[in-house]
Structure formats: structure tokens, C-alpha cells
Specification:
By secondary structure, the chain is of the alpha+beta class. It has 2 domains: about 210 residues; about 90 residues, Arc Repressor Mutant, subunit A. About 45% of the residues lie in helices and about 10% in strands. The protein contains 15 helices and 9 strands. It has a 3-stranded antiparallel beta sheet. The protein has a 3-stranded antiparallel beta sheet with strand order 4-6-5. A 3-stranded antiparallel beta sheet has the order 7-9-8. The longest helix is centred in the middle third of the chain and has 15 residues. It is globular. About 0% of the residues have low confidence.
Amino acid sequence: MKNLLYEADYKPHFSGHETFPLRQSWLKKAYDRRTDDCCVPKSTFSDDTAIGVFGVGKNMVSSIKHWALACGVLYDDTDGSEFHVSEQWSAILANDGLDPYCECPATTWLVHWRLAGASLGKHRSTTWWFIFNYLSNPVFRRDDVVRQLKAYADARSAKAAETTIRRDVETCLRGYCPTLDGGGVENAAEPLLAELGLILDEGSGSFSFRRGPKPSLPDGLFDFCLWDYWNRNSAAQSSLAFEAIAYGPGSPGRVFKMDEDSIAERLAGLDVRTKSTLKWVDFAGIRQVLRVPIDDIATERFTSRMLRAAYE
């Protein structure tokens, strides 16, 4: 399995959000600035008109851009003047899409997956990846996370001040367990990820993960993320062990903080849900998922079908 944090070309990222957790309307705001060729001019976020266009302050405009890139709504694969718009997110955020206003649990779980599962937005969410994949204890302290991330950044020769990392960690944690700080209406609005209940504030700088079955996580999105994880880490393999699905860095079990029984229950229905493209095998002590080989066109259709199933 690949280890994102230690890929040779991986550059840790600890800033860009201006300390604002992601709000419900922000991905839609960024998406709606697209042109007819499904691109968003980079100048959209820096022009003098940006404050009026987005209806928020200058720093929040920068934050909207950051979150759109971190979640993979926008991506930048050239040195040009435009960001490209993700086809998958277009299927969700278009006015006639699956969830244009980010009201469905599937969208919130997908956002979490993009940040902590390290897919399209992996290079802008180092802290999210680290907290959900490398903290093994059920209870952890904020200061310990800051210290570990600083050591990691130093080992990678990344220029990241401890204060920057601390703000990043605090922004991440406030996104899952917010507090009202009297900073105005926009600051007081509940962050999008808070509804997942994945992290609990235990007080005095301590936090804990809420593990369990995650009833608000749709089967279709679980299947979508399993397929995504498989292709990113073991694309050439026709089988994937239960242990990897439950405990591998960047896996659904680890990112969604699910217990073994809940994961096994989800996997047991794969055969029916995926029309035998994926099949759960639990025999003679061997637990694994098998998949049949399909070409790129069929893969695209299969991925789209799983995503749509998450919203049914």
C-alpha cells in the first residue's frame, strides 16, 4: 500500500483556509463561478469584485478557493489562468445535480473523504489526513498533534512555523466540533463537517474519535470510497484484504472511524449493490473483497453509478 505522507514528492500543506472551517454554501459558491467550458478563472478569487461576487470578506474568498481545491471541486493541472471543474462534483453541484446545496449526508461524507482520505485534495489537507489515519489512540491531545506534525514537516524540509501548524490543527478540529466564539454570523455558522460527529471535544485540549457504524453514511458512498481507495493503492490487485479496508492508511474503515462489525456488514452487501463487480468473501478465516476486471469506460460508468446510488 502507498503511504501518502512519505511519498517522495509529497509537500505538506498547512494553510490557505485563513482559519475558517468549511461552510455549507462555499463549495457551491466556487462551483457557480464556472464558465461555459467548465473552468473558473483564477482571477475570480483575486479581482476587486470578488467580495461582492461571493458575498463574504476578502479572507473568506481566499478560504472558499482553498476549500474548493482541497475538496477537489476545482483542480489546477496547468500553469494557465483557470482552474478546472471536477466532473464528479459537477454531477453533485449543478443546479439540477444530485445535491446542489450540500444538504445531503452523502455530500458531507464525500467532503470528509476528500480531505482525510487523500484523493483529489490530498496536497492541501495534511492535518486532516494525519489526524484520521495516524492517530491510533482513541483520545488525543491537540498539542501532541501539533508537535508531531511539526516534526514531520521538519523531516520533510517543509517551511512551516509551529504557529501555522497550530492554526491548521485548530481549524481542522473546529470543523468537526465547533464552538461559538462571537466572531459574527459567518463564524458562528456550524461548519459542514460538524454534522458527522466524528470528533468529540473532551475539554482541556483533549479530543476523541467517535467510532461505530455511521448510519448516516450511505452504502453507495461507502462503495464509492472503497473503489477509490482500491484504485489509488492497489489498482493491479483483484482482491483486497479486510484488514486493509479496515485499517490501511486512507481506507474507508480508518477515515470513517468504523468498527469491524460495521465494516463487515457493509461488505456483505457488495455483491448485490454492485451487481457482482465487487464480491465479499468470508471463508475459512480469509476475509477479502474480490473484483472483476473492467475497462476504463466501464470503470467510469461504475463509479458514476455508485456515486448516484449514494443519493438515492
